[in-house]
Design goal:
This protein is α+β, with helices and mostly antiparallel strands. The chain has 15 helices and ten strands. It has two domains: about 230 residues, no CATH class; about 250 residues, 4-Layer Sandwich (Phosphatase 2c, domain 1). It is rod-shaped, with a radius of gyration of 40 Å.
Length: about 500
Amino acid sequence: MPLASIQPEQPGRSPQHWTPELVKEFEGYTLALLRRRFLWFSGALGSVAAFFWLLAVVLKLADVSMFSLLIPGFRSKTDSIWPFLLSSLVQMLLVGWYAGCFWTVRRKAMTGQELIRLSYLLVAVHGMLAVVLARLPGAQASGLLVAGIVHFLACCFLPWSPRQAMMPLVPVIAVWAGLEVTIGTGGIGSRLLMVPWGLLIGLPGVALCALRHTQRLERYERTFFYKRYREVKRELVDARRIHESLFPTQVIDGAVRVHYKYEPMQQIGGDFLYVHRPEQNPDQLSVVLLDVTGHGVLAALTVNRIWGELRRIFAEHPSIAPGNVLHLLNRYAHLTLAPYGVYLTAKIVRIDATNDMLEYASGGHPPAFLYREDGSLVELESTAFVLGACPDADYVPDPKQMAMNPGDVLLLYTDGMNEARGLSGRLLGLDGLRKIINEVGTTHPHQGEWPDKVFSRMEAFRAGAPADDTILVEVSRPSAIVSARSPRERKRQPVGV
């Protein structure tokens, strides 16, 4: 059914937030409602018309006079029988018309346009018959008044828009005006002046339809968006479960351990962590921390693509250096993501416990912090541009190396951490984060406790919900004391979230 047959506006003037899906569903809902209400209206009014027609026949046979608005052709006992018979014949046809419309809609699958037109005809035919019968000699009711009552009842039943409510009135008022001007009483001037007043007969019904149609639109819109919200929320929960299945498990044994805490701004986000430990060299571990521009579903879909690329890179080169990983990721981002305005930052770290060496490369990512066992703090600054911003030939990863000894802890994070905003509107910043890390370090946290403790202090500073996705990663080397413990003793150590 075309939108114009349902809404009060044309399609181009419909609310901007009305999607094609919403419009289509509303049309289907209105069509079903119109069919159901049409059956009630035609059945009820047809039954009432049949009752009063039979009552009029009985009263006429009993030679009793009566005044009826619904049977404008009824005559008193002194009237001739012929006008009454004509009126009864028309009333019988009207009852048949209602019955025919009822059974047509009930038994036939009609399109929206066909049903709308039939509803117009149902009311218009009744109104025109009432107007014509009121002109017969001895008629006791105003035909236009009867037409107005029928029209108002139709507006009470049928889910018309204001424009649709006016359509059945056009032929009724045209017939009434023609009869009023040609055979009405009084002078031609007074008869012409009566015509505009006839237009007022449909105002109550049109006003009622305007009110109810607006309410119906608003009610359905709320229902639609609430239903879609629940569906989207359920889909996002499923998507988050699948998305987070790509994240690595906590690495709680070996020469290099990894613990992390992840907090997306929405159900799913664009921050991602990838961990790789070569089977042939378990004392070596690579960590890739990514932050894709944007939030939500778009960023998560990008992460899924990058995850596949990382799987390929490390499957082909298990011990690949961080600089080479950054170079390959930039090439991938520049060729496949940058054309769509999607970029990312990355911090790639490889730790080799065999020679106590940390090598890293960073593409536009916030500086990481290496908290040494003696309490000193070393910053790992960015070494290259944001990934995807420049072509492969111009990208220089410029990797760096430094020592990482047992007992040292490397803290990696995405910008949701340092860009947390407090009550005053001030950002936590690198200075604030550096202060938090030093405070946590003085508490001598156990392995795996850094993410929770740093996060809790950041959340105490932050006002309200997170404004960005956030990951905090602890990459640690167990101290000589922890490494010397038995596996059973190490299991008793807290491993964090």
